[in-house]
TrEMBL record:
One of its GO terms (biological process) is glycolytic process. Pfam families: Methyltransf_4 (PF02390), PGK (PF00162). One of its GO terms (molecular function) is phosphoglycerate kinase activity. One of its GO terms (cellular component) is cytosol. Belongs to the phosphoglycerate kinase family. Gene3D superfamilies: Phosphoglycerate kinase, N-terminal domain, Vaccinia Virus protein VP39. This is Phosphoglycerate kinase. The keyword Nucleotide-binding applies. The keyword Transmembrane helix does not apply. Its EC number is 2.7.2.3. Keywords: ATP-binding, Kinase, Magnesium, Methyltransferase, Nucleotide-binding, S-adenosyl-L-methionine, Transferase, tRNA processing.
Length: 482
């Protein structure tokens, strides 16, 4: 347990201040390779990456494959674990077909196992016959989504080291990402997880000015705290999706009722007020390309305040794109999160491709550009001539949750590994102050009282009895944050 009167707070929801939700985690790269030999290692992999119909050589595929191969070369006994569906690959339904597919991807023999549902054969017995074992589809078990403790314990039986390489699930509370680590001696991040975490850190870091956030998609009510964070840090906001209409409504502009989101007006008004207080621009499309349900191929341009009944916006208009281009001209950092998309998709929309063209030009003037979200990333990969210079994070859900100031459960579960490494400069505001160590600190309340009296000292509590400190430690940690 750590205590310092100036200990940096790590609140669950930020108030438009600095995000500080990155714990010090152990990584496979930093874990002693010799400690892996003959150990049973469970890898929670991302099926959306390794089970794609057409695997390419993108870095995330390479890093995900490297995690498993590295463990195999280190002499570990590997248990692979994931969920999959027909959306990922319609040919991969049963565990046997997935094992065959992974064998071809990894160039290693992967043996299927049904030991979750059929307990007649233990994982240890099966590992004697194969170095890599694939367990059944997690989506078939209710205990996965419920983070059932008994189910997690069953998954983790015989497992010594847990490796999480499914960053796209880090914002969810699952048995395979949050429950299993409780029963393992070491819990570390795989190569893909670590790479994705670095990309997230780059996305959240506003280290260059001016910085503009381009915000697409909808559902402002749910994402309001994340948008407020961007409004509190960036030098301008550009809305290119359904959220634009909620902002227009908050600004007092006429918006067709069918384009408004229930309950979002108050949140949109708060965002507008914050931007006005900081004197930063909020840009929304001044015109739109629109179509109708009856004649989807017929396109007309309407001003934002004059969209006729029956017409539906599908793309920013030419004036809107010119305004965006002008605002971005002198930027040194751009965060693009969410798709340039409104209610109807159409093959005739060009907003995303024109936006990529703008960003391509900015990359030539050393502008740092982060693109977040599957659709936005696909647009860049399809249209850009300079893909390699973009920082791309395909899973927008994780980033939205992080920007809200919420700690990512899958990330927090990795903050317990052996050998333990602690960044004392991050733990204490003044690490050079004298350190007081309380061995056998119990629930930490005595140590907390001492720390409140002596702000000139740093305090460290050590307690071996997990039953004594587990729940009280949570209370103690919250007290430290207050």
């Amino acid at each position: 347990m750590l205590r310092n009167s100036h200990l940096k707070p790590k609140a669950y929801v930020h108030d438009a201040g600095e995000l500080d939700a990155f714990p010090h985690i152990q990584t496979l790269k930093g874990f002693p390779k010799e400690e892996l030999f003959a150990k049973v290692v469970m890898v929670r992999f991302d099926s959306a990456i390794l089970l794609q119909k057409e695997l390419d050589l993108k870095s995330q595929v390479t890093s995900a494959v490297s995690t498993i191969k590295y463990l195999f070369e280190a002499g570990a006994k590997i248990i692979l674990l994931s969920d999959w569906s027909m959306k990922i690959n319609s040919k991969l339904l049963v565990v046997e077909s997935v094992a065959d597919f992974l064998s071809s991807v990894l160039q290693l023999k992967v043996a299927p196992s049904r030991c979750i549902s059929n307990r007649s054969l233990s994982k240890m017995e099966e590992l004697e016959k194969a170095d890599i074992l694939l367990l059944e589809n997690l989506s078939e078990f209710k205990g996965e989504l419920a983070n059932c403790s008994k189910f997690a314990e069953q998954l983790a039986s015989v497992v010594y080291i847990f490796v999480n390489d499914s960053f796209s699930n880090s914002h969810k509370i699952l048995a395979s990402t949050v429950g299993v680590p409780r029963f393992c001696s070491a819990c570390v991040a795989g190569f893909h997880f670590e790479e994705s975490l670095c990309q997230l850190k780059m996305a959240a870091q506003i280290n260059k000015k001016p910085c503009i956030a381009i915000i697409g998609g909808g559902n402002l009510f749910d994402k309001a705290s994340a948008v407020r964070y961007l409004a509190s840090r960036c030098d301008g906001l550009v809305f290119v999706g359904m959220m634009a209409f909620q902002i227009m409504h908050a600004l007092g502009l006429h918006v067709p009722l069918n384009l408004l989101e229930g309950g979002a007006l108050k949140e949109a008004s708060n965002i507008v007020q914050l931007a006005q207080n900081r004197k930063i621009p909020i840009l929304y499309p001044k015109d739109f390309w629109c179509t109708t349900n009856d004649f989807p191929k017929q396109m007309e341009i309407f001003p934002a305040y004059g969209i006729l009944d029956g017409w539906i916006p599908v793309d920013p208009g030419p004036k809107a794109l010119d305004e965006i281009n002008s605002l971005l001209a002198d930027c040194k950092k751009i965060i693009w999160i969410g798709p340039v998309k409104f209610r109807l998709a159409s093959q005739n929309i060009y907003g995303a491709s024109k936006l990529v063209s703008m960003l391509d030009r900015l990359t030539q003037s050393n502008c740092e550009i982060t693109v977040i979200g599957n659709m936005a990333c696909k647009g860049v990969m399809k249209e850009s001539s300079f893909v390699s210079v973009y920082n791309m994070v395909e899973n927008a859900s994780v980033v939205w949750e992080f920007l809200k100031g919420r700690k990512l459960p899958g990330l927090m579960a990795l903050d317990r590994a052996y050998p333990v490494e602690i960044d004392w400069n991050a733990a204490y505001t003044h690490p050079s102050q004298p350190l007081v160590v309380d061995i056998g600190s119990g629930n930490g309340l005595f140590l907390l009282a001492m720390a409140k009296r002596r702000e000139d000292l740093n305090f460290l509590g050590l307690e071996i009895n997990e039953k004594v400190c587990l729940l009280p430690f949570s209370v103690f940690f919250l007290l430290c944050m207050s």
